[in-house]
From TrEMBL:
SMART domains, alphabetized: CYCLIN (SM00385)
This protein's name: Transcription initiation factor IIB
Similarity comment text for this entry: Belongs to the TFIIB family.
CDD domains in alphabetical order: CYCLIN_TFIIB_archaea_like_rpt1 (cd20549)
UniProt source species: Halapricum salinum
Gene Ontology terms: cellular component: transcription preinitiation complex
Signal peptide: none
Sequence repeats by residue range: 143-226, 237-318
GO biological process terms, semicolon-separated: transcription preinitiation complex assembly
Domain (TFIIB-type) ranges: 27-57
Binding residue positions for Zn(2+): C31, C34, C49, C52
Gene that specifies this protein: tfb
Length: 325
C-alpha cells in the first residue's frame, strides 16, 4: 500500500487490536500498528499516529465548552460554572444554600404548606452547614467581618485577607479568652492596614460590638502571634478619602500631599498619629490655597480633635517653611 493511502487509512480494530480495549484518550499513546510513540489528539476529534498516520480513534467526545470567547469579559459572561470558593464564608462557599424567598422557579408564591416545609428545610440546612463549634465560631466571625467591612466601604480583597487572618488565629488556638467580635475587628483592621486602605481605630468604634480598648488589644495580639507584616500607616493614604468627604478642590489635596512629603524626612511623622497628620495637612493646605474651611469641619469629618489639628498643621508649616528657605 502506498504511503499516501497509509496516511489516511483507518485502523481495523477487529484485526489487530487485542482483546483489551484500546488505550484511553491521553496526550500520548502507543500506536498498535507500528508501536511508535507520539500519538496526538487532533482538534478535529481524531487520535492519529504521527509516525505512520493510522487513525487510532475518531468521533471523540469534546469535553470543552460549545461556545467560543475572544476575551476575558466574554468568557465570564458565557461561563456557566458556580461561584468560586472564597475565604469569606466558613465553608468557602462549597455547600448549597436554600434561598429565603418563598417562590418557585417561575416566581409564583408557594402555598402555606410548602412555606412551612421550606422553613424547616432552611433550619436543618443551617444546622448541617455548621456542625462543630469551630465552624459556628468561624461563621459568626466572618459574618461580623463582612458587616463591618460593608459599613466602612472596604473592598473585597480586604475582606478576604481579614478572613484568612481570623482563620489562622482560630486554627492556632489564639481565640480562647478573647471575644469573637474583638478578634474579628482586629483582623479587619490588620487587613485594611496590609492592603494600604487603612481605617483608624476610632472609625471602628461606632460599628464594632466591643469597645476600642478591647479590639485594639486584639489587633496587637494578632500582629504579635501571627507575625503580621504591617507597616506604619502612611498619612497620605488617608488624604483621598478625607478630601472627598470634605469636598475640597484637587489643589488642596495635592498641596497637602506635598506638605506630608516635605515633612517626613524632617522627622515630623515620628510618633504622630497618621490620621492627625492627614487632617492637619488638609487644614494647612487649605490655608495655603485660600480655601475657606474651618478646623471644626475637618475635625468632624476626620474624627480628630481641633487641638490635634492645630498642633499638626503648625508643625507641617514650619517644616515646609524650612524646606523653602
Amino acid at each position: 500500500m502506498s504511503e499516501t493511502n497509509t496516511r489516511f487509512r483507518t485502523h481495523d480494530r477487529s484485526r489487530t487490536a487485542p482483546t483489551e480495549p484500546v488505550a484511553e484518550e491521553t496526550d500520548e499513546l502507543t500506536c498498535p500498528e507500528c508501536g511508535a510513540d507520539g500519538v496526538t489528539v487532533e482538534k478535529r476529534g481524531e487520535t492519529v499516529c504521527e509516525a505512520c498516520g493510522v487513525v487510532i480513534e475518531d468521533d471523540m467526545i469534546d469535553h470543552g465548552p460549545e461556545w467560543r470567547a475572544f476575551d476575558s469579559r466574554e468568557r465570564d459572561q458565557k461561563s456557566r460554572v458556580g461561584a468560586p470558593s472564597t475565604n469569606t464564608l466558613h465553608d468557602k462557599g462549597l455547600s448549597t444554600k436554600i434561598d429565603w424567598q418563598d417562590s418557585d422557579a417561575k416566581g409564583s408564591a408557594l402555598s402555606a404548606r410548602k412555606r412551612s416545609q421550606m422553613v424547616r428545610l432552611r433550619t436543618w440546612d443551617e444546622r448541617f452547614r455548621a456542625q462543630s463549634a469551630r465552624e459556628r465560631n468561624l461563621k459568626q466571625a466572618l459574618g461580623e467581618i463582612d458587616r463591618m467591612a460593608s459599613a466602612l466601604g472596604l473592598p473585597e480583597n480586604v475582606r478576604e485577607t481579614a478572613s484568612v487572618i481570623y482563620r489562622k488565629a482560630l486554627y492556632d488556638d489564639l481565640l480562647p479568652g478573647r471575644s469573637i467580635e474583638a478578634m474579628a475587628t482586629g483582623s479587619l483592621y490588620a487587613a485594611a492596614r496590609q492592603a494600604n486602605t487603612p481605617r483608624s481605630l476610632d472609625e471602628f468604634q461606632p460599628i464594632s460590638r466591643v469597645d476600642r480598648q478591647e479590639y485594639a488589644r486584639a489587633y496587637r495580639y494578632l500582629a504579635r502571634e501571627l507575625g503580621l507584616a504591617v507597616e506604619p500607616a502612611d498619612p497620605a493614604s488617608y488624604l483621598p478619602r478625607f478630601a472627598s468627604a470634605l469636598d475640597v478642590p484637587e489643589e488642596v489635596e495635592r498641596r497637602a500631599r506635598e506638605l506630608l512629603n516635605v515633612s517626613k524626612p524632617k522627622g515630623v511623622h515620628s510618633g504622630k498619629s497618621p490620621v492627625g497628620l492627614a487632617a492637619g495637612a488638609l487644614y494647612a493646605a487649605a490655608l495655603l490655597t485660600n480655601e475657606q474651611i474651618t478646623q471644626q469641619t475637618i475635625a468632624e469629618e476626620t474624627e480628630v480633635s481641633e487641638v490635634t489639628i492645630r498642633n499638626r498643621y503648625q508643625e507641617l508649616l514650619e517644616a515646609y517653611d524650612q524646606d523653602a528657605a
